[in-house]
Amino acid sequence: MQQLLLKLYSYAMQVASVIMVAFLPLAVGAQTGTLPVMYIETQNHRPITSKTVYVPGSYYIVDSQNPAMNVGSQDSPLPLEVRGRGHSSWKGAKKPYKIKLGEKAGLLGMASNKHWALLKFYEPTVVGMNLGEMFGMDWTPSTRPLEVVLNGDYLGLYLLTETNRIAKNRLNIYEQPNWNVDENTIPYGWLVEVDNYVEPNQIMFKENSKWNINITYHSPDSLSAPQKTWLLNEFKAINEAIYTDDKTGSTWENSIDVDAMARYFIIQEVLDNSDGFHGSFYLHKDMEDDARWVAGPLWDLACNQREKTDYTFRMKTSYGFTPHWIEELIKDEDFCLAVRLAWSEFYPHRVQQWMDYIDDHLLPCREAFEQEKIRWNYTSSATLDDRVDRLKSALIANVEWFNAHLPKAGPSAVDDMELADKQVVKVEYVNMAGMRNSRPFDGVNIKVTTYGDGSTSTSKIIVKP
To answer: Model confidence over 193-218: pLDDT tens digits?
Structure first.
């Protein structure tokens, strides 16, 4: 009888413990479920220690707020491979990862693909990518916040991010093959990066008397001798045209899209991103008769959140950096005019739209961010609301500073009267069916901008549903 009573008492205590746990506050290091949760399990729970060697495993995604976005399940996970990624970010305690799915999938409403990145949650990445979409870059990676559990270990808050690749659902341009020797197609279908690291898939030459410039080729990523020769000669010629003393000829515009470069410059300045013309500075080139290099896609965005007293590429940082090309480009009249025209499409009427996006896409991460702080022992007690408010204040200050210091160049720089003639008076979006609207349609649009002097300009805009 005594043994029976002890067993009943033990069972009662277990039941009581379960009931108590159910009503306790969120446990340390546990996913909140207020965001989608990605569960990854590597084969035999192998650790991920390499940035080049993939580890096989499986995954599934649970979105308790929107079950239609679930992918796989605990009972039926899907195959993937995962490895480390990044440079300085890989050295931190919390690691970023590169993911290759076994089969293409559209994750959390993003376009279907095999290749993804899990980046550390960083607010400027989210707001900067949105700014790229607002400024009509050819293609800008999408991000979605989520929580990650790896081999049963809660890793906190991440950004599931589309990676920069040439693909139908990513940067949709012609992609020339590796080892190409056809001189007719070698000049087309490139994705490269002006890099601040030395990589094996890279060309290097002297940019000026102070430093070299590294061009990392991502696609194609294995070059024949003719491809490598062409790429080196191409960028040497571009560099020479940019550095010419005669800034009235603007011959670099024959090789680089001036409007896209101007928009890229604005984004880096508004974010106050010192790395904008230093590293992760991507350029791509499609196949057309007059194909030029186009700035983008965006990647690795940051915001210094300091008092802005000059253009970012001139301001000092805690580390040394080399702002490639921009010091010369800003001396060019055509470039400065392109900056001012692109700015007029954004300021002031779209600034609040951007601020609203920041609130809508960051503040729902509040609870997961608190768990992130616990998991990685944050020393700051600042809440996500605090951080978002600080970021928005810095961005608004940057916007106002830039608006008061729009670039002009040369003795015949565009004066305010001439610019007034180029103010935007009408913007229309035309979809592939020829329908017109004041707001963009989902999918591919042609944006038609009409200016005060009667002239128009067009650009391609892709809106993701």
So the answer is: 999 999 999 999 999 999 999 999 99
* Residue range 426-436, pLDDT digits in tens: 777 788 777 88
Would you say residue 46 lies in a domain? yes
pLDDT in tens, 263-272: 999 999 999 9
402-405 contacts at long range (C-beta below 8 A, 24 or more positions apart): 402/266, 402/269, 402/270, 402/308, 402/343, 403/343, 403/347, 403/348, 405/311
**Which residue reads 């379960």 in tokens?**
18
If we measure between CA atoms, which residue out of 337, 238, 345, 352 comes closest to residue 294?
Answer: 238
**Is there a domain that residue 242 lies in?**
no
d(CA 114, CA 162): 10
**Which amino acid is residue 205, in one-letter code?**
F
Q: 195: closest CA among 210, 215, 211, 212?
A: 215
- Cα 55 from Cα 129, distance rounded (Å): 29
Total length of the chain: 465
Positions of E strands within 183-293: 190-195, 202-206, 212-219, 281-285
Please state, in angstroms and rounded to a whole number, the distance separating the CA atoms of residues 247 and 347: 28
Residue 442's domain spans which residues? 416-465
Q: Is the pLDDT of residue 322 over 70?
A: yes
Amino acid at 85: R
Distance CA 221, CA 310 (A): 37
Angle ∠(19,22,27) on CA atoms, nearest 5 = 135
Closest CA to 211 of 278, 151, 113: 278
- Is residue 300 included in any domain, yes or no? no
Boundary of a domain, candidates 162, 196, 225: 162
Mean pLDDT for 376-382 is 94
| CB 357 within 8 Å of CB 127 | yes
- The reply to whether 4 falls in a domain is no
Cβ proximity of 148 and 156 under 8 Å = yes
Please state the domain count of the chain: 2
The percent of the chain in helix, strand and coil, each rounded to the nearest 5, is 35, 25, 40
